[in-house]
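Lab channel / #folding
Pinned by the channel admin:
"Please post every new chain as: sequence first, then the structure tokens as a reply. Keep commentary short and put observations after the output so the thread stays searchable."

First post following the new format, from NK:
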Amino acid sequence: MALRKVIISGGGTGGHIYPALAIAEEIKQRFPEVDILFVGAIGRMEMEKIPAEGYPIEGLWITGIERKIFSKKNLSFPFKLISSLTKAKAIIKKFKPEVVIGVGGFASGPLLHVASKRGIPTLIQEQNSFPGITNRILAKKVDRICTGFDNMNHWFPKAKTRYTGNPIRMGVLKAEESASNARAHFSLDENKPTVFIMGGSLGAASINKAVQIHLAKLNEAGIQVLWQTGKRYLPEEEAWLRTQKLTGVVATDFISRMDLAYIAADVIVSRAGAMSIAELAIVGKPCVLVPSPNVSEDHQTKNALSMTESGAAILLKDQELDEKLGETLHQLMTDKSAYVQMASAMKKLARPKAAAAVVDEIIDLCKA
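Reply from TO:
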């Protein structure tokens, strides 16, 4: 069968947006004439990133509930929910999708709820080893669930859950550039050992602080650093760098060519978001994972443990960074045996055909 009209809903962070785009790429590759509509939350990053990739998007007036139940921000939630459900009904009535796919985030809730009520095939893709609250609620309503991690039957009904892995962007999957060319792209020395440090799509203050503490020693050891600071932190980090006598440091707010950043690096420091982990497994290089302490149910620590237990990465807690980051990186860069073993363990966890597996499930669902 051919897919003709598909809605993909959700977002909020790169961890939801990038698998959504990977699924869309795979659908487009199989069915070039398909019409794909994205639905996101007004004011969130998907409203900028999705159109930049050439897809139309509709926005819902929706946010999550604050953890502090008596927060003033929660007073508007019922009105936002009613507004979003009303608009979701209008979108579905006008677009007439054959299937609705949710990737997590606030916006996927209203769309999947309305679609399931109307008998439209529905599927959610859960990236994390600890599911988000939206997908936990939707799990009872949707027809199928695709997971990024194995053994998720504790959270989701076994009969409709499939372990597919997390869909990866085509640019990362098919990256073929040489390390020297990738380093040249970022104005790095092609012959120096390189660390790529990233704090997620928005940056991380704790990681940036630790970089400041350890950068001089890394510099002295001849290790160069590609440093993704996050947009809000870049001005202060650039100002700090101007006061230092350092070479081989490239700071940037956001990296659009992540494939080149991965290729340029020998070792990568990253938050432990599910999509970052999935991409890092494809890249197959040693990693230092620093779970964010500011996410719900501490799910990034659970993600990271799934990697460290396999010997594929080193886990450093946020509070350990200031003391241990530099020493950990230096040890990884100089211990060739540990480096090779970790790289090999990382590659074994890769699931390069995850997007194809999700689309197979979508097609099977629509046939049924």
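NK: Residues 325 and 362 are 42 Å apart (CA to CA).
TO: also worth noting, The two ends are 11 Å apart (CA to CA).
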